[in-house]
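As noted in the main text, all predictions were made from sequence alone. Below is one such record, for Transcriptional regulator.
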Amino acid sequence: MALTVGVVGPEDLVQRVTAVGAPSGTALLPLAYRHETEAVELVEQAHSDVDAFLFTGVVPYTIATEAGVIDRPAMYVSYDGATLLRALVELLRLGHNVTQFSIDTLRRSEVIETLIEAKLPTEHIHVLPYRPGLTSDDIVEFHRTAREKHDTKVAISCLGSAFHLIENEMPSVRLAPSRYSIRSTLQALVLTTTGQHVGDAQVALGVIDLPEPDDALAADLITLGGSLAALPDGRHLVVTTRGLLEQATEQFSRMPLLDHLAARHTTAYVGFGVGRTAAEAEALARRAVSRAASIGSVAGVVSMSDDVEIVIEPSGEQPTTARGTESLPLLARRVGLNTQTLARMRELTATLPDGLTTQDVADHLAVQLRTARRVLKRLERAGLAAPTGTQQHGRTGRPPTVYLIRL
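Prediction:
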């Protein structure tokens, strides 16, 4: 299977990656930017053209990840100790003092370990590790401060935009990833992407429970590209694959099938199971359709083998006024979150009544950002959360979405 990998980064580094070449059966698509803040737009524009993304460094990768625009395998090329050693050798060749320098983006432990192995002193080395939200202006200010307060002799930067701002002010060098790092990262990314494509071929079985026969059902299921059969209990069995199911449900975010069924039936329950075997997928589908019946008059649930359950309701369904008075256990069962998580979300909503962001949820629940996004997405699907705008605070990349929560 031929794969296309989008290479995201400044033009010179993108050219460096493409010059190394890709593994057999893989094509590289250059996605060069002038400034790292353009990474989000490039990723969004290339979604339909690539199977995976390779970023030339941690900065554009983090910006795109924080913006939530990466929905397929993605990795970044690391700047290892060998990269730093080559830069130090070049600085020595040019007559610079390599015992007093400032360096950004790399971890301090990695820098110190590299210098110790090279038998170089470390007491006059200043390191600014990269963290989300760190801008090129922040990095430039770090190098300027290190020179003014600590008399550093050289600035070493991993970020092109920062390097171009300081190269005329002080002796500077820009790190570039080694051919070895590029090649090994590409190989790992291709293996990961190939593995996910195999996952797309996982069997997905659906069980549809309707109150009466429906001659239009087969036409509704065309987008799933599978087959439809009648079950002995009067329900319907749908056979498809995970990849087709993801496409038809927009990555499990909505199910047009439910809208069609809601227009023709007073009740309709759809459950899909995604498993490693047909037997496992069928068991998950039956569990999912039973769960759907406990949510409302029309609902869908996708169950997976790793105990993940995604609740989907008709896109046209509006939350009822009674939902605000539902008990937490009832809400938890309908939304697909545990009671404790909903209780913590109520606490957060009380402190931020005008809206909250994914970062607010992650901090309050002490979870990763991707987990916080899933929590908000489930609340949104259940009609308990709605995006109301974005938060503007001079952030790098796309500003975070603000959600209004009704719990």
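Confidence is low (pLDDT under 50) at residues 317-325. The CA atoms of residues 223 and 248 lie 6 Å apart. These features were considered when defining construct boundaries for the mutagenesis experiments described in Section 2.9.
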